[in-house]
Amino acid sequence: MLTLSWAAFSVPSRRVDRVQNQRELELVSVLIADDHFTVLESVVPMLKPFFNVVGTASDGKAAVEAEDKLHPDVVILDISMPVMSGIDAAKQMRKQGSKARIVFLTVHEDTDILAAAKAAGGKGYVVKSRLGTDLIPAIKDALAGKDFVSKFSPE
Prior knowledge:
Elements: H1 22-25, E1 29-33, H2 37-47, E2 52-57, H3 60-70, E3 74-78, H4 86-95, E4 101-106, H5 111-119, E5 122-127, H6 131-143, E6 148-149
Parallel strand pairs: 1-2, 1-3, 3-4, 4-5, 5-6
Helix pairs in contact: 3-4
């Protein structure tokens, strides 16, 4: 069982100043967008004990539409998705006034793509090979207004 120590953090749309217990943590709403069903199939159950997973999307356009309807606190976006990339989806969400914290989940270990993700408003950049160890801390940091970047594999 994964045990986490959660420090106080602010949640943008719920205006929760301190998360003091598991019940309050479950109020943090998360939308997950990835075009690979197997990724969604592993991420959703990983997050459900800690967060309120309010929806999933399989492409960038669907993610933008879901964010507009659901207004989640956190949006997890794959970068390489059909119809609209995660980076373009994040830009569109910001253009529409979204205050959601964005965490990118990607296979790309590339500093140029990392820079583009940050420029699009991303607070987190999680490499899929580090999903199990980095995704929840990245969400926590994003909610606290901090940046999180997975370590890239040595080349």
